[in-house]
Design goal:
364 residues; alpha/beta; 7-stranded mixed β-sheet; 3-stranded antiparallel β-sheet; 10 strands; binds 4'-deoxy-4'-aminopyridoxal-5'-phosphate
Length: 364
């Protein structure tokens, strides 16, 4: 029983079929001048158009290996050769947080916005920190640990008052899952990752507005505006576009189904030892809980013994016995932050699986 869809999703069958077709038929390099190369290039352009259509954007699109690379290229590309203040939150994914830590070491003035007990930033703090010296603001849309959803529309309104400041949104856990209350077109740079929405692993996207002078971090050919030079896998690009379109079309239907599963879990988990870290305003795809006193890793293995696969938190940090950053930020409670498990749901999750999970959790 897989309850770790936030870490990654299985590939959709239609998407996998497309992968094989493109690999077999359109293997030429998109930069080759001959007919097969041009056919591949036409598919590439068509796929970019589809992604732009689905999201309603005119942005440049850079295909990377994953969202980690996309976040790095976004942040470092905006800041190259610039000096100033940069703002992020204390609960970002490591692919943003650790870049800001590195930039702090290099001398940037960095602000880590605090979050409240629901994992939401304080817009007043953001407004107070903004000034004409701010170069970049990075905020995740949906938190990958508890599923808190940031007020992106308000953040856009605040940051856009400062023309020098660019807004970067890590949209990895929101895209195809949560209906945005904002327009992607209004965001300077944002990132996503196909393996989070039933696409293949190995492909992330950095979308950035055409007027942004994104500096190169890698050097090679002019492929992908020179931002991510080198030959890319057209089949991965096509799969990313297909999965995005398919799962974005099913967003409402899947949301309603998963919300019902989540409501059921919250209602039926009746174990006094369990503390919920996610609340009803969070993404229904994520239900985070703690059993203070029991290590998160121990909990994962206890559930595993019942064929239930959950995560201790971000897959990237799950092997470390450190308090979970987001849970500590919302609770200031070390014991709670060390005893975390993250249950994540999907349209593929069945009610029987959920019932079995409840049974096991209630007997812990
Ligand atoms: N941002 C968030 C919010 C994520 O959940 C993840 C995946 N854990 C990433 C970025 C990094 O994505 P990838 O695995 O594609 O590098």
């Amino acid at each position: 029983m897989y309850f770790d869809y936030t870490a990654t999703t299985p590939i959709d069958n239609e998407v996998l079929d497309l992968y094989v077709t493109i690999q077999k038929k359109y293997y030429a390099n998109t930069t080759s001048l001959h007919l097969l190369g041009q056919k591949a290039n036409n598919i590439y352009e068509q796929m970019k158009k589809e992604i732009r259509n689905v999201l309603g954007i005119n942005h440049e699109l850079i295909f990377t290996s994953n969202a980690t690379e996309a976040n790095n290229l976004a942040i470092l590309g905006v800041l190259e050769n610039k000096v100033g203040k940069i703002i992020t939150t204390e609960i970002e994914h490591p692919s943003v947080f650790n870049v800001y830590k590195e930039l702090e070491n290099r001398g940037y003035e960095v602000v880590y916005l605090k979050v409240n007990s629901e994992g939401i930033i304080d817009l007043n703090q953001l407004e107070e920190e903004m000034n004409n010296n701010v170069l970049l603001v990075s905020v995740m849309w949906v938190n990958n640990i508890i599923g808190s959803i940031q007020p992106i529309k308000d953040i856009i309104r605040i940051v856009s008052k400062y023309p020098k400041a660019k807004l970067h949104i890590d949209a990895v856990q929101g895209i195809t899952k949560i209906k945005p209350d904002f327009k992607f077109e209004d965001i300077d740079l944002f990132t996503m990752s196909a393996h989070k929405f039933y696409g293949p692993k190995g492909i992330g996207v950095l979308a950035y507005k055409k007027n942004i002078d994104l500096k190169k971090r890698l050097f090679g050919s002019n492929s992908q505006n020179g931002i991510k030079p080198g030959t890319f896998d057209l089949a991965l690009v096509a799969c990313c576009a297909k999965a995005l379109k398919k799962y974005n079309n099913n967003l409402d239907k899947h949301f309603d189904y998963v919300k019902r599963l989540n409501d059921y879990l919250i209602k039926e988990i009746k174990n006094d030892k369990i503390v919920f870290n996610s609340n009803e305003n969070c993404s229904p795809y994520i239900l985070n809980l703690s059993i203070p006193g029991i290590n998160g890793e121990t909990l994962v293995h206890t559930l595993e013994a019942n064929d239930i696969y959950v995560s201790t938190g971000s897959s990237c940090s799950s092997k470390l016995a450190k308090p979970e950053k987001t849970i500590y930020a919302i609770s200031k409670d070390e014991s709670r932050a060390r005893s975390v498990i993250r249950i994540s749901l999907s349209y593929l999750t069945t009610i029987d699986e959920v019932k079995e999970l409840v049974r096991v959790l209630n007997n812990l």
